[in-house]
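Sequence dictates fold. Below is an illustrative record:

_____
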Amino acid sequence: MTATGKSADYVYIPRGYVGLVGRVTYDYLSKYLLDVNMGYNGSENFAPGKTRFGLFPSFSAGWVISAEKFMERQKVFDYLKLRVSWGRVGSDVGTSARFMYMPAVWSQNGTYSFGVYNTNGTPIYQMGSLGNDDITWETADKQNYGIDMRFLNGRLSVTADYFMEHRKDILITPNSTPSIIAMTLQNMNLGKVDNHGYELSLGWRDQIDDWSYHVKGNISYSKNKIVYMDEVPNEYSYMDQTGGSTGRQTGLYRFERLYQYSDFIDDGSGNLKLKPEFSQPYVTVAPGDAMYADLNKDGIVDSSDRETTGYSTRPEYMFDLNAGFEYKNFAFSMQWLGATHVDKMLDKAYRIPFTDSGRRGLLQYFVDDCWTPYNQSGTLPRPATASQSWNSENSTLWLRDASYLRLKSVSMSYTLRHSKLRNKLGINSLVFTLSGYNLLTFSPLDILDPETITSGGGVYPMVRLYNLGLTVNF
């Protein structure tokens, strides 16, 4: 077993779990509903007989108010139900390490030559990450409060939910460990994250003569907050992650604008020098390079001016709209999806022209938007090898709004029913179908798919699909 054996050598060994579950449900006159669940689970990641097993209960209760006698004469609600639930769930994944309780192991890690003229190497043995037999399950306590309503003879439906979640004992690698400890500590149950949000659904369904139609929209909001992550105290508060959402970008310069010729003076030898009234970057810059904010106001732009900022890589708001109609033998349906309050950091492939030392093609938006002496209104830094590293630094210039609105799917069908088909061929009906997927996307992030999990280069783009089908029913 190597020093990294807990996470590497065991990757092909099936994970080991054991558990008992139980459930009790109660329904009285379809008015009072109760559901109680209990789980008792054990994981290989925790020490036997100590912290291996965890108890995870949950319950939900519902009250159908519209079924009560005192609601019989009212004419507002066709259906009215209140819901409440609470549950505790557990996770043993942590940072994906396995057998985290096992003690550290020693393994050979190269050689070392003792003395001045000794060329014979002596094997070096290094201790891997320490085990921790006190770690146990991450837990999340979840609450949900909901209401279901229907009006106007069932044509209008409304569902609303509010939820809260408190995660604790999150398995993380300690961040405040002194560097004098020359090894990696094992995961510890340190992290805490709170989450809250709501979901609202509104639907309408009706029929007028031969027309029937439906439309249903959903909106959901979810935002979390890092309560504790063993964060090392930072010199400046704008660097902190604690108190903000998970998934935000860290270590970013705040982009202000591109330097212009008017920001420089001649140093007397024919070279341009940045005017002294500007905060001075720790590297030499030229017109067309990126200007970053001096956040600590010390007159120098360096690593002390990096901040944690932006929205999470997961959207805070999600939208969904389903609509359609049927008229005699014709049917139509569509689905729209949307998201906002979400950011993505562009990878190097989208920051540097001819990325990977000139072995790749030039993206069109570099051609259109790069600053040059002939295009001083460009919004992207100049394409210059000398300042390539500075201009491609992690900054808000490359942190892009990944909000989107997408026509996810459209489907149309026509059903042909004819007595001659049935009598001569034995066919009851023919259904012709035309459908499409990922047909339209509206987003400020137009150089890659805003819905992708990653913003890396080389990701295969979202594919637009069309299908034409024929269904024969006998």
Notes: The chain has three helices and 25 strands.
